[in-house]
Give the backbone structure.
Amino acid sequence: MDTAINTIPTVKYNQNYSSLKDLFLDYRATQRCLPAFNVNDNYDLKAVVEAANELDTNVMVMTYPPVAELNTPEVFKSLVDGFKKIHKNNIYLHLDHSTTVDLCKRAIDSGYDSVMIDGSQVSLQENIKMTKEVVDYASSAGVVVEAEIGKIMGRGVEVKCDDDFLASANDVKQLYEATGVDIVAVGIGTAHGFTPTEPKIHFNRLREIAEAVPAPLVLHGGTGIPDGDIQKSITMGMSKINIGTIVHTTYMKYAFEEIQKAGDGAYPPFIMKEVLPKIKAVVKDRLRAVNFK
Ligand code: 13P
């Protein structure tokens, strides 16, 4: 009898960890990646959480600053807590791309599991200073802090991947060592949103960065990256992937269609009942691409 098959470890995506920091360290060591989705309200939050629960995987949900500010971090945290009561999988809440220390502090005080301080638009020294301030504030609460090095460009713009936009391994090492930040988003050629041409991921740069620091790394701009590139980058040290645009464009497209069909009688829960399965389908598709082993 061939016993080899019995010895192949089953890769798990639903493990419990004593802390999110431990999850990330283990994910980096075992070449796994936490799927993280940008959400905007209770409806797309519900779609992401249900999709992850049905596929039995840990998941992260992220609020961009306008979402956190409009809903308030306190309310969003309560929403996530409500979903945690009715679902068995681990759901982690993250503040994405905050350019201010104050919003990070407010999210930490509200009970977020993780915050990103995005100093990618300022000098390395200034980036280090603001990242350190957030790391110090987050430490007693055990909240994970993400920093960014390099520039991950915005929606609809040409994908720029010259050296000005890529993260340098030296800069990542310097920021990591000076701040003790938990996870680092690194510019390696991806861009946020749909891009006119396929993003070209600079795997050599990713290798240099992964060799320079033990920190779990974060891949931004998850919409539109081919599955093979996502999976290769996970095996090279990407331990969190951010996926946003495909969620909100699916949400808006189908909501618009349903509202047009319903006309003056459009009623939010009836509209959303039709839209939620569409969002869940794209989220499941992305979850399968990330949890591929
Ligand atoms: P996409 O919008 O390309 O999926 O990227 C999301 C992201 O990186 C959020 O930080």
About this structure: Residues 38, 96-97, 192-193, 220-223, 242-246 surround 1,3-dihydroxyacetonephosphate (CB under 6 Å). The longest strand covers residues 91-98.
